[in-house]
């Protein structure tokens, strides 16, 4: 029987084949061995093995996402492990005792700075702010200007500061005080911030500048008069003419007339007030509207000072107390501040003009040369312009005068050092900048500020020192001078007395100050009724914290007697210099330095701006 082979060949079936099952089995075994001796290809393997079983993966449905169970288990495990470790570490941190690193205690200069600023709070006139922090002071002289019978145009003169231990508002030394405070803030705002006093000192300055804007028509471009004084100090009329010197009364109880003094030829006062407003405009540069208002007022005052020449104290009541010697130094000083506030080079041209410098006494010296005060600002102006030369180097046409001022500043700094005999010193080490005359401390603190500031200028300019003749001195010498003088004031003197009220344990108790010497109670004491407190032998009932008194004599002697104002009376001009010196010396010199750039905020580039680079070349 024949059949068809499905693979294409004949298939013959032999029925006669009688082979036994054993034979077949043996033959099959032979075939199997032959097949196994050859490797099978993939197709043959798939025939024999069939479809393989695939391992089924397991998933976890989280609602918004489906993830592998293995990944899910690992993720949850890692989260739990991290939580356990975090909790364990937190437990250790909480249970292990910790040693907090406290900031270093404030140095004496920082402590004294806070107290010295409080004195200005005690001197405020008008309606006091809510948080004035002087419990024995209250609103006072709320009718200043309004009840004046002299025909003064300006009728609102409420506010400002009383000058010293009386209630007179002398604008000449007050303007100098505000300028000094502003200068210190411009240079050392970071130190004020570190001491926690930046807002306080700015509030003090603004209280003063707000008042100055009332003393002339600050909205006008041109004026013909300004107010120079409120109150009266002439005691020639005795008690029949009650005024701020003949009476001993708390400012809150004043009921006598307070005349207003105006001037129409007062270049010195107007230029100093311009300096006060101009420097304050830099302090408040972030308050653009107020800064602009200050600059405008300063420009108006400056124009008045230049157009109507004269000295404010000529024939005036102020001549007895704050007599002005000239106005040329205020032109250099005020012109410099006007330049810094506006960037207008016409002010710099004037301030650095050789003829103006000559008139101001820059080339002829004198016994008070190098002594910065409310009357003589030349030394301060020279240092301000030396700053300009050190950091911006404006060159021609200013360089000749600026170089002269730089050299003279170096000579002045040499004169402060104990190696030279320009000024005598007491046995206790206090420099006699006023040559033994009374009330020396106001001059000492100004010199300490200038010396520290100049040393910081040189450090900022990467200059390690300066020459005094053939000898080179490190900037540390200037700082050492400033420290010894301020330390003397704070108690390192033969009497072991601090001349800053409230600092240390031994300080003047009978300060020449009407408000501090009369108790605050329900009683109102008349003009002469307060004499019993003036003449009392005991300490003042109110401590006027932060007041720097006039100071010791040339023999380091001091008489704590209320009626002797040459020893015990404080002034705002003196305290302003003290504040400036204290902030300059405070803190860490290596980490907190001067602000090199803020004072130049309005100053344009000295040289043309280079053109932008060309556009990149394109093929």
TrEMBL record:
Q: Which residues form a coiled coil?
A: none
Q: Which residues cross the membrane?
A: 71-93
Q: Where is this region: Disordered?
A: 1-24
- One Pfam family, please name it: Glyco_hydro_9
For this protein, the record's Gene3D superfamilies field holds:
1.50.10.10
Q: Does the keyword Transmembrane helix apply?
A: yes
Report what the protein is called.
Endoglucanase
Recorded source organism is Mikania micrantha (bitter vine)
Q: What is the lineage of its organism?
A: Eukaryota, Viridiplantae, Streptophyta, Embryophyta, Tracheophyta
């Amino acid at each position: 029987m024949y059949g068809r082979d499905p693979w294409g060949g004949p298939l013959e079936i032999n029925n006669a084949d009688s082979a036994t099952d054993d034979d077949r089995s043996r033959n099959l075994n032979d075939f199997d061995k032959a097949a196994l001796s050859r490797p099978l290809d993939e197709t043959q393997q798939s025939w024999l093995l069939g479809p393989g079983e695939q391992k089924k993966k397991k998933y976890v449905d989280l609602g918004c996402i489906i993830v592998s169970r293995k990944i899910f288990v690992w993720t949850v495990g890692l989260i739990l492990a991290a939580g356990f470790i975090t909790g364990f570490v937190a437990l250790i941190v909480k249970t292990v005792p910790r040693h907090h690193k406290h900031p270093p205690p404030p140095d004496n200069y920082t402590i004294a700075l806070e107290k010295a600023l409080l004195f200005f709070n005690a001197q405020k006139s008008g309606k006091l702010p809510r948080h004035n922090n002087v419990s024995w002071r209250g609103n006072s002289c709320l009718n200043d200007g309004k009840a004046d019978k002299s025909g003064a145009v300006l009728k609102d003169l409420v506010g400002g500061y009383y000058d010293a231990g009386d209630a007179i508002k002398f604008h000449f030394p007050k303007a100098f005080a505000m300028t000094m405070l502003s200068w210190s803030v411009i240079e050392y705002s970071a130190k004020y911030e570190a001491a926690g006093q930046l807002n306080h000192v700015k509030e003090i300055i603004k209280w003063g500048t707000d008042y100055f804007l009332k003393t002339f028509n600050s909205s006008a471009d041109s004026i013909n008069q300004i107010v120079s004084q409120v109150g009266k100090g002439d005691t020639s009329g005795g008690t029949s003419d009650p005024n701020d010197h003949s009476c001993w009364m708390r400012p809150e109880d004043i009921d006598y007339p307070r005349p207003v003094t105006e001037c129409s030829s007062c270049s010195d006062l107007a230029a100093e007030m311009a300096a006060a407003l101009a420097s304050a405009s830099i302090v408040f540069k972030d308050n653009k509207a107020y800064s602009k208002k200050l600059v405008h007022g300063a420009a108006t005052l400056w124009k008045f000072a230049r157009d109507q020449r004269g000295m404010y104290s000529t024939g005036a009541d102020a001549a007895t107390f704050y007599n002005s010697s000239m106005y040329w130094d205020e032109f250099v000083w005020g012109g410099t501040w006007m330049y810094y506030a506006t960037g207008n080079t016409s002010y710099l041209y004037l301030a650095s003009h050789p003829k103006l410098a000559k008139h101001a006494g820059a080339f002829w010296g004198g016994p008070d040369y190098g002594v910065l005060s409310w009357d003589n600002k030349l030394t301060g102006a020279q240092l301000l312009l030396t700053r300009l030369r050190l950091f911006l180097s404006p060159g021609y046409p200013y360089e000749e005068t600026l170089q002269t001022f730089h050299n003279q500043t170096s000579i002045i700094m040499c004169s402060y050092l104990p190696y030279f005999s320009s000024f005598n010193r007491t046995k206790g080490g206090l420099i006699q900048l006023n040559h033994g005359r009374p009330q020396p401390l106001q001059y000492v603190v100004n010199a300490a500020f200038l010396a520290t500031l100049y040393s910081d200028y040189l450090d900022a300019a990467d200059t390690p020192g300066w020459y005094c003749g053939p000898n080179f001195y490190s900037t540390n010498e200037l700082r050492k001078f400033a420290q010894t003088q301020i330390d003397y004031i704070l108690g390192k003197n033969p009497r072991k007395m601090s001349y800053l009220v409230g600092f240390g344990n031994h300080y003047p108790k009978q300060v020449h100050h009407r408000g501090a010497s009369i108790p605050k109670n329900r009683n109102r004491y008349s003009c002469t009724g307060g004499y019993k407190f003036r003449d009392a032998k005991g300490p003042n009932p109110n401590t006027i914290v932060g007041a720097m008194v006039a100071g010791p004599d040339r023999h380091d002697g001091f008489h704590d007697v209320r009626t002797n104002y040459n020893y015990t009376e404080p002034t705002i001009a003196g305290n302003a210099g003290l504040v400036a010196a204290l902030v300059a010396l405070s803190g860490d010199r290596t980490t907190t330095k001067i602000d090199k750039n803020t004072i130049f905020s309005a100053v344009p580039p000295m040289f043309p701006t280079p053109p932008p680079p060309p556009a990149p070349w394109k093929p």
